[in-house]
């Protein structure tokens, strides 16, 4: 689900052809792969029973939350979910085209690196010119190329016109999102022209991890174009359980809602999907920074040859597809897997711990990290979230306490303590996840339920709650400051109760948001 597949059909195509596609249940496939991994188990085998989910999702490279999550249903989809096409060519074909603006600190100049991959099928070399044009920057450069038969990479280094001022891309609330139209024309063998058009943005990003005077640990914050930026945002999970229902209008609505809510960041969470190009284009245009997880979440993963080969292809493909977007400011190897291993969420037998540590380093450090460093030198990379960042690296890539508030980022959830008491919130360097539950509005529930479901303790309500004791926790949190509804009318009681959970959540989010905004300039004291 996370990579592009290509097949050479040259030797099987006939005058009349038919294509037959056979699908295997992803649940069955995941189970088969798990059984085939006989040396040791790779936990967790199954999600908690309250999630009503499917097992062994860590053995299949598809949307991890489609097998269920603590916030969503199990819909393990199958089938073709992107366009399928036949491409015919006689001499050569452009496989991919990607680029990265590079800022030279020593000369304070902007340059551009362009990389293209070609499949040359002719028996003789293919030669010609590549013309790069960026009209508004008064930049036009031409390059001679010669491609030998086979898979070939063309790398170009474009120097920007120094007489023209380049406007940089800024996050929402900090400046404009200026972009420049670019065309790259490949004129090959006199009769073949391939033209690519793209919008190019210029910005730098730094992840600052430095000692803090008077405090233990290290800082953890971002600079965009040399300016410290306070990130305000949300985790982005898949917009629908069925991706074919996600329309352009929906993506636009949700993206503009982020800006309207005065956010400037979305974290594309590692249990979902790498989003489509349109999502990142919207983030570019709106100034929404993106923290991009790779799609590994809340699990240990196998590292056998076949799995690792697929992962390497996936990671390289996604970086090449996405790295030209200025909105993406960081790559993160996974969601919560450092914490899962070091806090022993899955009760791993101590005799196997070294094996899982070795697998972790092999997957996220020796493979994913190495590919990121080779493919994209313009962004920081961290192995996990939460992580202690540089301190995790110093401890061999896995920190003894990944939730140490003096390093890196933390995730914070506390459904028991009074959220109006600001002292419960961790005085952390960076908080990349926090949240509270609430029920959706009755108008939403009404569309997918019947009258017998309209009770807070109905089978429907219990079944839809995938977090252990989640419904009770919401009421316990609410009654710390509100009287619970006592109506004799069951429908009014249900409506008022779910509304109260929303009020409770709103107040909790308001408290924690204000706390971190107030503390953002005071990190040196804790």
TrEMBL record:
Stretches assigned to the Beta-mannosidase-like galactose-binding domain: 1-81
Molecular function via GO: beta-mannosidase activity
UniProt-listed GO biological process terms: carbohydrate metabolic process; glycoprotein catabolic process
Primary location group: other
Any one Pfam family match given in the protein's UniProt record, by short name: Glyco_hydro_2_N2
Leading EC class: hydrolase
Gene3D superfamilies noted in UniProt: Galactose-binding domain-like, Glycosidases, Immunoglobulins
Record-annotated Glycoside hydrolase family 2 catalytic domain positions: 222-439
Keywords: Glycosidase, Hydrolase, Lysosome, Signal
Its EC number(s): 3.2.1.25
Compartment list: Lysosome
GO CC terms, sorted: lysosome
Keyword Signal included in the entry's annotation: yes
Catalyses which reaction(s): Hydrolysis of terminal, non-reducing beta-D-mannose residues in beta-D-mannosides
Spans traversing the lipid bilayer: none
Family in the record: Belongs to the glycosyl hydrolase 2 family.
Protein name: beta-mannosidase
